[in-house]
Amino acid sequence: MGHLQVTYFALFMVPDINAEADYNEWEREGAEGWNYNDLRPSVNSIRGYKKHFTIEEIDTFLNPKDSVQPLPIRIYDRTNTEPLVHGKLEDRIPVDLNTPRGTMGTATWAACIDNDGCRSSAATAYLTDDVLARPNLFVAVNCCVERILFENENSTPRAVGVELRTARNGPLFRVLASREVILSAGAYGTPHLLMVSGIGPEKELVEKKITVIKHLPAVGKNLVDHPTCGFVAYRTKGVPTYDYLNNPLNALFALAQWYMTGKGPMATLVAPGGAFVRSVPMIVLDETVHKPPSGMQGITLGVACLRPKSSGEITLKTDNIWDKPTVDPKWFSDEHDMHVLARGVRLLLKIARTKPLVDFVDYREDKRYPFLWPGTQDPVELTEEQLHDFIRTNSRLAWHPACTARMGKSEGSSVVNAKLKVHGIQSLRIIDVSIFPKQISGHPCAPIIAIAEKAADMIKEAYSVQ
Ligand SMILES: Cc1cc2nc3c(=O)[nH]c(=O)nc-3n(C[C@H](O)[C@H](O)[C@H](O)COP(=O)(O)OP(=O)(O)OC[C@H]3O[C@@H](n4cnc5c(N)ncnc54)[C@H](O)[C@@H]3O)c2cc1C
Q1: Which of 113, 189, 324, 341 yields a CA-CA distance of 20 to 30 A from 250?
Q2: What is the pLDDT of residues 412-448, one digit of tens each?
């Protein structure tokens, strides 16, 4: 069992389900039965909703708040709205994210909590004590699956199990499957494991002296993420930001407040809010990325390109799973992404100079702190080249890699079919972010969990299990 959903979902926990058009495009890409309406029941089955007291018009079809059953993922919009975020961009961008009017607009991010008010993750939501006690479930942690085992059945390979170890030179365990092997190793791990097991681009496998089980050229290709511009940092004046928590006493007080009341800064997300804007996708106010010098408080703003046209690849360094593969995201290989980010940076610089942020941001240039945005520069006068330079120097990914074992009809351009079964292999299914046919314009966790729910229903149906 892996950990990324556990750790990182708990860190950020932004559980949006994103735009309807994303999933309808999936179907056009060959993922039959995966349009928005198809996925909607699975979405609704994973989320309970606790309404935000300041936002009346939440679309209850997206957020079914009257659920009778306790649902695995409970979504909670924080009640302490951030003065720097919520409602303040509304002159420019509507405050109506996830309402019947659509998924564009700004809001504070929602978070996932469990029934005790603690942060929830896929693991804490699904692997509850009663589930872990089931006799037909064995959870092995800190293991690395080295390869998938195959048998040849009527000349079509069939996955029959896996081999795993707890350390590179540790003892080898063989786990056999009575029905299917299900692979959920993520956007990097899934293509890596497929390739060392003999499924992938034939030429690359042969180069690494791996016996080819199935030539599937799309394995490890089409890698997309959400490239961001990096962070534009401003010093603030006259208002505290979460940087006051850099003082251990303040942090201790905040922790005590959270223990006693469940509220306060410790009950918030590292990125408090954001906006979805067409062609100029996301603005996040965040305080964590640049730790300012002691005594200085500030905010950072960033923008991400949600539908990048550049795509990268994952290739093998060796035939051994313990050697990490090469991940080449090929950022900005398509100029579109740079243009989108540049437009986004220009927009957020303007927002920082618009009320109310303009009252809180201290624009003075200070050569001692080169990470601060030189506020004397007028966003309108900045050249494209200057923006591109900033982006090239600072850009980073949003940790949303996807599509490296994409779903589709053709063996030439995809890895799994609409049942999430690997083309040309029996009894091998993939259920994770790597099967996205196309990148989505938002956070991936909630859609991945919805995909897993839908896949579980398909599997139960295939084996006539209730
Ligand atoms: C810092 C960070 C913050 C994020 N914040 C958010 C957010 O706020 N909202 C959101 O929606 N998404 C967020 N994401 C993205 C989200 O975590 C991922 O998209 C999601 O976890 C992918 O889920 P998955 O099940 O496909 O794969 P993963 O969660 O990556 O699970 C795959 C697991 O398989 C394991 N594995 C790989 N290879 C092997 C092998 N050979 N043997 C055994 N195990 C193996 C890996 O260690 C990994 O734990 C964030 C990601 C990061 C890194």
Answers
A1: 113
A2: 999 999 999 999 999 999 999 999 999 998 888 888 9
Overall residue count recorded for the chain in this entry: 466
Strand 396-397 to 156-165 pairing: unpaired
Query: Is 453 a pocket residue for ligand 1 (Cβ < 6 Å)?
Result: no
Centroid of ligand 1 to alpha carbon of 186 (angstroms): 6
Q: Using CA atoms, how far apart are residues 288 and 300, in angstroms rounded to an integer? A: 8
CA distance linking residue 273 with residue 353, whole number of Å:
18
Residue 1, pLDDT > 80, answer no
* Ligand 1 mean position, distance from CA 322 (Å): 18
The predicted-structure confidence for 45-58, as pLDDT tens digits, reads as follows 665 555 544 444 44
3 lines ligand 1 (CB under 6 A): yes
C-beta of 112 in contact with ligand 1 (< 6 A): no
